[in-house]
Amino acid sequence: MTVLDTAVDPRTPGYPEARNATLDRLDRLEAALEEARSGGGERAVTRHHARGKLLPRERIEMLLDQDAPFLELSPVSGWGTEFPVGAGVVTGIGVVEAVECVIIATDPTVEGTAANPYAVEKIRRAARIASADRMPLVNLVESAAEAPGAASSPGGSIARDLSRLSTRRVPTVCVVFGPATGDVAYLPALSDYTIMVRGHAKMLTSPRPRNGSNGADVRPSVAPADQLAEDERDALRLARQCVRRLNWRKSGPPPRTTTPSPPKYDVEDLLALTTLFDPREVLARILDGSEFDEFKPAVGAAVLAGWGELHGYPVGVLAAAAGIPQTAADSQKAVHFIQLANATDTSLLLLQRDETGTLGSPAVDALAHSTVPLLALNTGRTGDPRFTFSWPADGPVANADDDGVIDPRDTRTVLGLCLSAVHSAVVEGAGHVGAFRAGKVDQ
Question: Is 26 inside a domain boundary?
Answer without folding.
Answer: no
